[in-house]
Amino acid sequence: xxxxxxxxxxxxxxxxxxxxxxxxxxxxxxxxxxxxxxxxxxxxxxxxxxxxxxxxxxxxxxxxxxxxxxxxxxxxxxxxxxxxxxxxxxxxxxxxxxxxxxxxxxxxxxxxxxxxxxxxxxxxxxxxxxxxxxxxxxxxx
Length: 141
Ligand code: RTP
Ligand code: MG
Description:
- The protein is α+β, with helices and mostly antiparallel strands.
- Helices cover 39% and strands 20% of the residues.
- The protein is built from seven helices and four strands; from the N terminus they run βααβααβααβα.
- A four-stranded antiparallel sheet has the order 2-3-1-4, with helices on both faces.
- It starts with a strand and ends with a helix.
- The site of ribavirin triphosphate (RTP) has 10 residues, from strand 4.
């Protein structure tokens, strides 16, 4: 497991794009030694989000999460590197910006507004299987 070159999906969510943090996120990814191998700006619709967040469809925050993710453009990034799935989750920090440690993207930049859907700047795939599935959704031909 120490040598496993893989790809992950990173999303700069609408709050990150609105706050001009796209470059900051990309810089942290590149400084860590990962390689950006795909990049696009997307206006997500509900159908795309239902595929992406299929594990959350029954959750009480799902509607608010979709409203948030549809509130502006998203920057979708394909990132490659050794153990990058785990590595990017570590760069991102915990889901809730209050709990996320300083030095992580969410810890440094995430604002805890107490909204139903947590606004936390970035998404990162949570396993290499999820990454393959999600890259197929966001980077479909
Ligand atoms: P992500 O999928 O975006 O990388 O974040 P994650 O794995 O850390 O968190 P996940 O549990 O997959 O939740 C997906 C996104 O939904 C919003 N959320 N709100 N109010 C809440 O309890 C709540 N829980 C999740 C966040 O935007 C979270 O990143
Ligand atoms: Mg997740």
